[in-house]
Amino acid sequence: MRLSIFLFFFLMSISTIAQEGYQYLNGIVENDATGFPMESVHIINLNNVIGTTSDNKGVFEIPVQVNDTLYFSYLGYKSLKVAVTQDMIRFKSSKFQLTELAYALEEIILRPYLLTGYLDIDVKSVPINQAGRYRIAGLSNAGYEAGNRKPNSISKTFAALFNPADFLHNLFGKKSVQMKKLKKMRENYELKNLLAIKFDREILVELLNLQRIDLDEILRNCNYSDAFIKESNDLQILEAISGCYEEYKILKL
Q1: Which of 87, 152, 156, 196 falls between 20 and 30 A from 189, CA-CA?
Q2: DSSP characters for 196-225?
Q3: 234 has pLDDT over 90
Q4: What is the average per-residue pLDDT within 157-186?
């Protein structure tokens, strides 16, 4: 019974790809300097939000259409964007080369906390995130992080939720096409694995077709703190934006 269900959904996915005019592009990812194949490189089709990874021989396969944009990402290497051509699809062994980045290590100064051994005194030296979180009854979100930029953060939180002409409408309303990609992004296993280890926001910017400053502005206007925006990985940022957008759609009804 389980095998029958699996075969049904597998055939349905193949049928969907065929109906939408997708073809499979087969390629090899190599190191630009050595020519050696690169394993576990993430390849994402930015147009239809489909991701895959290269195997131990650098080989990958991904559904594409002509003029789609492929995005190659690997830690320590410069990201690569390539427009798909008919020749890439026709010839089954297109090669894509990634260039290793050169990092200059900056001087790091460690400043240890001076502890006295007395708990009542030492506890006052522990850094505390002053951002408050506020939960709205009836909404599934765990809460809103109001941040600590201004003392009226609580009032701003409620104003942002219940004012129909607020900045969230301006942000999400004008970018509805990009925001619809959020659901696809959250459903893609390969993409989520990649975002969980990245902190540079590059893939989010490329997929959503936004500027980095727009991402930060959306999160601030959704009342996330500066600490959260700075320290979270890309998957956490994706979930934060997605949750805020879903509740924006509910409140807009």
Answers
A1: 87
A2: TT--S-HHHHHHHT--HHHHHHHHHHTT--
A3: yes
A4: 64
